Structures are given as structure tokens and as C-alpha cells.
Amino acid sequence: KALLYTQPEEVCYAYEELSKVCNNFTIAASFGNVHGVYKPGNVILSPKILDNSQKYIQEKHNTVIKPVDFVFHGGSGSALEEIREAIDYGVIKMNIDTDMQYAYTTGVRDDMEEKSAYLKSQIGNPEGDDKPNKKYYDPRAWIREGELTFKSRLKQAFEDLNNINTL
User: Fold this and answer.
1) Which of 50, 109, 144, 161 has a Cα-to-Cα distance from 56 of 20 to 30 A?
2) pLDDT at 42
3) Span 57-88, pLDDT tens digits
4) Within a 10 A sphere around the Cβ of 145, how many other Cβ atoms?
């Protein structure tokens, strides 16, 4: 099981090597995180690994508290408690592409389902056989719905990541 998770010594090695190049970098340690989305319980996150790594580096190199900025790769579908715990241990960036793709698709899908009777032909719908449907199948209309659900999910991510009104 340990092979699936980055060990503090490995994070420290990355820290030492990257520090030779620049003092501004991030490390993407594996703490059970994976790209994509999985049924809850199929992926076991252990954010404590990040905390252990911070403490290991701090002790070994006599650094400031939390010397490493971490990236949470594969954060889509993670529980809010796990996200917040990872942030507490130094995560400053989280990848949520899968969640964002789904949010966009949800808006388009829901709009298409709601207007399905208007999308079967260019003319003729529940309002009459001679009624045009252009405003329903115009891509600008359903793309906008995807943009709105994307925006809503992004706002949720900002809230989950404690990134509202932080400037």
C-alpha cells in the first residue's frame, strides 16, 4: 500500500532538488488522489501524508512551518473535509477538471432535455406545427446553459477551497 502513496522522504528529495533551482515551486505528492472521478469509497485519500512530509522537511532542514506548497492532482469528487484537510497541510492548487467538464455538460444536457420537443425539427413544436425552433437549437442558447452551470461549479470550488474574498 505504501507504494501508492508518496513518502515524506520522497517529498523531501523533491524539495531538496527543486530548491537548488528556485525557491518558488509546488510538489504534487500522491496521497491517494487520482485523476478522474470514482465512486465514493473507491479512492482512499490520506492527506496526513502531506502533513507528515511538511514536518519531516521542517525538522530535517530547520525551515519555516509548512515549507512546501502542494498541488492536489485529481481533486474532482473529493469530500469537502478531505479538501479542507489538504489545504490545512499546504495545498495551494487543486485540479478539478473532471468536475468542471461534468458541470458544463450538465447545463447543456438539462437544457436539451427541457427543450427536446423543440429540437426534433426546424419547424413545428408543442406550440404549433408552423412554429420555428431556431431559438431553441441555436448553439449560443445551449452553450450559455453550459457556461452557467460551469460558473456555478467554479464558484462552489472557490468556496470549497476557501478562496472567496481573499485579496
Assistant:
1) 161
2) 66
3) 999 999 999 999 999 988 877 888 989 999 99
4) 19
- 43 alpha-carbon distance from chain centroid: 15
CA distances (Å), origin 129, targets 10, 118, 120, 124, 125: 68, 11, 12, 4, 6
CA nearest neighbour of 53 among 94, 92, 14: 14
> What pTM does this model have?
0.81
Q: What is the dihedral of CA 48, 49, 53, 54, to 10 degrees?
A: -30
- Asked if 30 and 6 touch (Cβ cutoff 8 Å), the reply is yes
Q: How far is CA 21 from CA 9, 10, 14, 16, 17, in A?
A: 19, 17, 11, 9, 7
Distances (CA, A) of 28 to 20, 64, 133: 18, 20, 49
Confidence at residue 146, expressed as pLDDT on a 0 to 100 scale: 98
* Pairing status of strand 91-94 against strand 123-125: unpaired
Average pLDDT over residues 138-148: 97
Would you state the pLDDT for residue 167? 67
Nearest to 145 by CA among 103, 99, 101, 100: 103
